[in-house]
Structures are given as C-alpha cells and as structure tokens.
Amino acid sequence: MQLRQSMRRAAKMRLALAGASGSGKTYSSLLIAYGMTGDWSKIAVIDSENCSADLYAHLGGYQVLTLDNFAPETYIEAISICEQAGAEVIIIDSISHCWDYLLDYHANLQGNSFANWAKVTPRQNAFIQRILTSSAHIICTMRSKQDYVLSDKNGKMVPEKVGLKAVQRDNVDYEFTAVLDIAMNHKATTSKDRTGLFTGRPEFMITPQVGQAILRWCNLSTNPENVQPQNATNYVQHSSAA
Questions:
Q1: pTM (two decimals)
Q2: Residue 188 near residue 211 (C-beta atoms within 8 A)
Q3: Which among 79, 179, 74 is positioned nearest to 133, based on CA atoms?
Q4: How far are the Cα atoms of 74, 203, 212 from residue 94, in angstroms, in the given order?
C-alpha cells in the first residue's frame, strides 16, 4: 500500500433514470446519450421493454439489442456485445426486468428462503459489477412502482399517477454516479448526484444539453502539480432545459 495525493481522472458515467411507465425514461436516456456522443451510431440500447427503444428510431440510427430473457448473465453478455460494437454510451432499458427475474428465480427455489439468497445475490452482484467496470458510459432505466394521488387542477380534484420506489434491489442507487427521477410531466429531479450538476436545481426537462454537461464533467481531470478547484454548479448552466 502507498499513500498518494488525490487526482481527478476522466470518468465513465454511471447514470440511472427512474420513473413510472410513460414518464419518458427511454426517450430521456436517448437524448442524454446523444448529447454525450453527438453521434447516434455510437449509442447502443439493451432493450428488455418489448422493443420500446425502436419507437424513437426517427431520432437517429442508434443500435438496439433486444433481450430474449432477463437473466443477469444475459445482460452481462449484452454489455460485452455493445462494447465490442464500439458503443460509447450503452443504455440498459431497463434493469428492473433483471431484478424481477431474480425474484422469480428465488421464489421457485426449494428449501430455506433466507439461505436461498446465497444463490441469488452473487448473480445480482456480478451484473452490477459488469455495469461498473464497462469501458462505455452506462445509462440504466428503472421502473418505479406506481400509485395515484389526488391533485387540484382548476378547482377539481383529479387522480395523478406518480412513481414511487424503483423496482430493483434496495440501495442499488448507491452504485450510480447520479440518479434522476422522472415525473409524469417528463421533468426530472435528482435523488443522488455526485457530479454537482443537478443538486439543488428545480425540476427540468431533459435535452441533449444535459448529456453535454455530463460529458464535460466526466472529462474533467487534474494534474497533481496544478490542481484547480472546480465548481461543478457552473456546468448546470449548460444543461438548463426547463
């Protein structure tokens, strides 16, 4: 072991977008990915949402890999295929299906339910580790459990769909650099942000400029002999989309 001075290196983004069905997770992910690459052909979508990624093919010629099952090993293989194809940003839409698969697998195991998690957890951990070690930027979508609240609109109380807890293992958000929550009005807020780009901001619309700001943050680097303090909130100005 050797102690060294801290040094900011270029990073790969690990971003999660959580929201209820219809909130715009896939579309928002594509806009962010395009902002990061400026080239649709450098974007790959791992699709577990019944080919929903193809609904936005008019945006540009991004690549799509449709999964035929949702085992974590299938996702891991799909990430490798996208990397080998030269994808700079990989969108996994969504990782909720993987967790649903593992829950079903666990429910069908014989024996002690608690002990059986030893057969599940390593598979989930391997999937998450593959995301974290990818050579590409990764954007993951997560479905949120849905509920309805009554909202006052023009003097009338009407039901409004809202997203609640994301469908994935508890505390999975710890693994991501940032987590954006997308409401049914397609506007985003942040529940975790290590970049400083979104913290304290009001809700905002996602555009390619958000991806551009994320890429600038990822490419920040410092030399130990010439460290300049950075105020990450400066980069928010480039992603203003409200």
A1: 0.82
A2: no
A3: 79
A4: 13, 23, 23
Three-state secondary structure of the chain: CCCCCCCCCCCCCEEEEEECCCCCHHHHHHHHHHHHHCCHHHEEEEECCCCHHHHHHHHCCCEEEECCCCCHHHHHHHHHHHHHCCCCEEEEECCHHHHHHHHHHHHCCCCCCCHHHHHCHHHHHHHHHHHHCCCCEEEEEEEEEEEEEEEEECCEEEEEEEEEEECCCCCHHHHCCEEEEECCCCEEEEEEECCCCCCCCCCEECCHHHHHHHHHHHCCCCECCECCCCCHHHHHHHHCCC
Q: Distance between the two ends of the chain, CA-based, in angstroms?
A: 47
Q: In the predicted model, is pLDDT for residue 226 greater than 60?
A: no
pLDDT at 52: 85
